[in-house]
Write the structure tokens for this entry.
Amino acid sequence: MLLLLVGSCTNKSSTGQPKKVAVIVSTLNNPWFVVLAETAAAQAKALGYKTKIFDSQNNTALESDHFENAIVSGFNAILLNPTDSDGSIVNAMKAKEAGIPVFCMDREVNSPQAATCQILSDNYSGCVAIGKYFVQTLRTKAKDTPINYVEILGLVGDNNTWNRSKGFHSVVDQYPNFKMVAQQSADFDRNKAMEVLESILQAHPDVNAVFCGNDAMAMGAYQALVAAGKANDVGVFGFDGADDVMNSIRDGKIKATGLQSPQTMAKTAAEYADEYFKGKRDFAKKIPVAVELVDQANIKDYSTPKKL
């Protein structure tokens, strides 16, 4: 009877201690990823597991160190937000070989074998919606004159960067009056985006709009426009649904964003780890999570973002 009782406690390891869940995220230098990491850790803890958050600082080598640490320290599952779609494959495979399941959140790795399951925003469709709104917002002006716009990309090694860009361009490229005068990476970083746009504005002072691959870069781009005295003339469009951008949309500053749900992805990953511990193995390789377009017209439908 005692053996049966011990065996039924699926949130305990063979030593009788709670199982451990590692949350490895690409960076904690972005509030959106802080929400992702803290939600994942909180949900795993609520399910009865010990948790620890590791910050990879957008460095695949540091991410590799975190994986080694997690494996050696006896973590039983890893909830991963990868630093690089290709570069993170080897890390996920190391965990798999050690018998540790990996559940990807928000970003994917380019291998169907590496992760147990990947819970991902539908970035392409979300940016199709942004592209349509982008054209709709600027189209009346485009009848008389070309629309010059800038695209600020995220990390070039992240599939999200290109899925967002492709979704956006699948719409905007159909309109010949819309001209992309510059496309440059700012690594999903607010300060880098500000510097990138400041430089671009020197060469292209007649920009009408800026599409940014995430909200941190949208805020940086908006800062650059404020400094240049162009904030009222140039529309900024982001992606994520980060608190500061949602509030900026409320204030009539940034035009729109694609609202992701880091909470949904994080909680799902933690719950899947729990199901894995309880014996489930037949997980879908990819789980898409819908993205909502939020603009100045419908922002009233969204409550003020809550902090964790």
